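Why does residue order matter? Because the sequence determines the fold. Keep that principle in mind as you read this record.
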Amino acid sequence: MKKLLLQLDTDANPSVFDTVVGYDGGADHVIGHGNCNPDNVGALVEGAIFTRSPKEKKNTALFLGGSDLIAGEKLLSAVKSTFFSNFRVSAMLDSNGSNTTAAAAVAKMMVSTSLKGKRAVILGGTGPVGQRAAVMLVQEGASVCIASRKQSRAVEACAHIETEFDVTVEAAGAATNEERAKLCADAQIVFTTGAAGVQLLDAEHWQNNKNIEVIADANATPPLGIGGTDMMDEGKESHGTIIWGAIGFGKLKLALHRACIAKLFESNDQIFDAGEIFALAKKMA
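Structure:
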């Protein structure tokens, strides 16, 4: 029985990255569908849940992706509403790599230091990775601030987090590197998840800050999000701070993504969203 992974993408073209990792995770065939939304996904899901016997349903699984996390959340809700009784298959949500990237980064931070009672600042944190990381950090006992160039965007992101996960996250506006450095003055954890090729913090801003214990940067496109770091940094210590670069914790991200795909085919009743993926990341880290 072939292991079939239906890749349901909210973008027009299904992600090549997610297709490749789908195969690397153990799928025999990855079948991509673009422009998926709550209105049209029902027929695709029905094709997945009605075609195989109960014992064979575990060999069909769904991967939900795309660049828009909110669209992905709505898609997952629509998918789950189509399931009934044992007419279901396992599904994973990882819009823009948000769950696996955030889970890997936070899991590596936990290897480096205790998060409980610490203050964490996520710079450029209104995107999918920043939002998911904020939730995970709060769940591990940290107080979290999401910063954006525009205060309104940070407020909107924090409101969405509170609605979806019932956790409180502080919102801040910081338009310049100097403003962001002031925001991080009393932080022990700093995570940058901004746009590729945009430096959000200069080297001296963390090298001269004795409060910061761990920094992580999700950006692998020069210039990096944090000056004075390297994308390959893998728990490197410098100026009293432990550094995780995008490739450094990205090794766990890829391994985690593949592991989640493999687990989808173990049974037909699993949902891998932020919580489930983070739990697995902590075990793997």
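The first helix runs from residue 16 to 24.
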